[in-house]
Amino acid sequence: MKSAHNVAVLMYHHVTDQPGSLAVTARQFESQMRGLVENGWRTLQADEFFAFLAGEPVAPKSVLLTFDDGYLDNWVYAHPILEHHGLHAVLFAVTGLIGDGPIRPHAGQKNVALPVCPSHHEAKAIMFRPERDQVMLRWDEIRAMQQAGTFEIHSHTHTHTRWDRVSPSAAEKISSLNQDLLASRAALQQQLGASSRHLCWPQGYFDADYLAVARDNGFDCLYTTDARGQNKPGGNPGYVYRFAARNRAWGWLKQRLWLATHPTLAPLYNARKARSDARH
Ligand SMILES: [Zn+2]
After folding, report:
1. DSSP assignment, residue 24?
2. Which of 13, 11, 246 is nearest to 118 (CA)?
3. Are 63 and 231 in contact (CB under 8 A)?
4. 20 to 30 A from 188, CA-CA: which of 68, 149, 160, 205?
5. Is 8-279 a CATH 3.20.20.370 domain?
6. CA of 264 to the centre of ligand 1 (A)
7. Separation of alpha carbons 178 and 184, rounded Å
């Protein structure tokens, strides 16, 4: 079987009914997902992606869709669109911010009043406060998405804290991150009956201590916010490249995937981007 030269990993946060920072509107998301299906792309599971890095073949047009944090709009807007197209995404949930309570309506249902899904700006203001349930997913919604096959759930830590910034010493940073990862794994085990090797760094930050703590906790497939590289067989699963999805239609994604996966153009493009990022 001919396998993919590399696999692009997309990073989403919000899919909502209105544009805003870190948001893709439901209309553009629908366009992107329809484009994937109509052009023969396959959405991988996280473990298939990990196996690909270890040398297992995957279909040449394979892509990994990832969502960070665990916002309510992932259930309200992204889930029904993924379900409609039979596509699959990976959700990195901040496990300590996921709530309890009944499942809320989603946009794939008829004659329902949809919950209001605030902008990223508003969500950020309350996601660490008791009212967070207004913007974050609930465990029952996560279980429903998992059962539908639209999302699989992995860790984005338990608290989304930048321990490097708030810890007075390296020893305390290490101990706090360790607690954070232990708590996240325990929550996934308790709520979903399983946890995994896949971990996404809050704000893309990690250092040598972070890597050691993650590995001690059984996390060896680690997702960055670095877009300037390709995920290839034999590549480092401890450094997964991802690029941010834009609020644009399929035409944009088609071109971005072509560029990201091109065997010779992508490295040139990434090197140029790295040089220009270094200048800014
Ligand atoms: Zn995050």
Report:
1. E
2. 13
3. no
4. 205
5. yes
6. 31
7. 10
